[in-house]
């Protein structure tokens, strides 16, 4: 397979996927302002290279909550990978392992946790939404622990799924044969019933997500697992302070791919405030609009330990399964390693706040 840019994978995926599926993957909430805002935030930043540094050997390797990574790179949690390719998350796991990247598996994965783990050679985290039926969450956690997952990621920016006009316009529901195989089917039925002018995914969230949870509920979760807890969707220093207070080991600074609060502060803009608030007391990841190796460099300078990549992974998956995902991850890792050399920053720890400027 000829090497493609991420734009090339995107174009190929758009051509291959059915329009409602493409809109589900690509669409945002409300006016879809956050789709461009997230990218604009990264584009407003420029790197400050240093000269005459020995960059004969650049080492992009790092570690995250005890897991070794070939580069500060991982795959964001996204549901239903089988929408993009028949092998779904199993193909994604193979590619992530080959690339030495983290894979965060959605609780709404379309392949069994055990099958994903069997295909993986790299670190796995499990993402959760807080369901009204808590025993279903506990069952998933137990299975993840047994399968060797290394952390839990609780999404905290989605007490309900926001209005997404493309999905409503398409009356989007999961196609025949695609389902969240790790969750009791009785909890997922709403996501399969298409209705004109309404998203079945949004209807499902209103039925099953618990919008009443607070910081105090984290103790309940803590009591049921020994796995590290990561919160995804934090965008303020105040909430970052609370996360540390409640013993959270990691924060993913994220706008949910532009699919939740419209007109929110982009994740890249929020990251420095959050890094200052936690002051090294927990690990930080940036999720959102990462399209270039230079974006990884920018995120590290802003205070992140690693980045997560979302839609481009599904583009690669739609293009050629595991090989396409590996192509996406490889392109980003190669570009980041090149940025290390050209910035005079041969180690991950060399990316500090003085190496970036905002305009």
Structure description:
The chain has 359 residues and is an alpha/beta fold. The chain is built from 13 helices and 12 strands. It has helices spanning 6-16, 19-26, 33-43, 89-99, 113-119, 134-147, 165-170, 200-208, 218-222, 237-245, 267-278, 293-302, 311-343, and strands at residues 45-47, 62-64, 67-69, 73-75, 102-105, 124-128, 151-155, 229-234, 250-254, 283-287, 306-309, 356-358. An 8-stranded parallel barrel has the order 4-5-6-7-8-9-10-11, surrounded by 6 helices. Strands 1-12 form a two-stranded antiparallel ribbon. Strands 2-3 form a two-stranded antiparallel ribbon. α4 packs parallel to α13 (311-343) and α10 (237-245) packs across α11 (267-278). The chain is globular.
